[in-house]
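Quick check before the chapter quiz. The format below is the same one you will see on the exam, so make sure you can read both the input and the output lines.
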Amino acid sequence: MHEELSQPKDRKWSLISLVICCFASAIFGALDFFLYEHDAWLSASDWIYTIVFVGTVAAWCHCDAQYRGYRISKVMRIGIILLMCVAVPIYLIASRGWLKKVTNADVSIISPTDFAVPSPFG
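Here is the expected output.
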């Protein structure tokens, strides 16, 4: 599933969404700097920038999933839109296969009993 990636040309849409996100950040930062005294602009810019940012990150996740051959569930799509700071890291771990590598690795889990002093009574 993760071994065969699509051709590099398929990756252009994810790069375009990242460029749009960076460009929007720069534009809104400059506009906020120059229009700071206008209350109407501040309230409108917060909503507009949030919609643009969420849209471009959701588009990037969608394009990246297509590129990697990963299927995003409906719950994950909703999570990416509503709880981005939680769902995007979960998407990255799941789509890259990191979770399988971590669970299949020979990792010893340290338990509190590892530090217990042995009892002289056996």
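If your answer matched, good. The radius of gyration is 22 Å.
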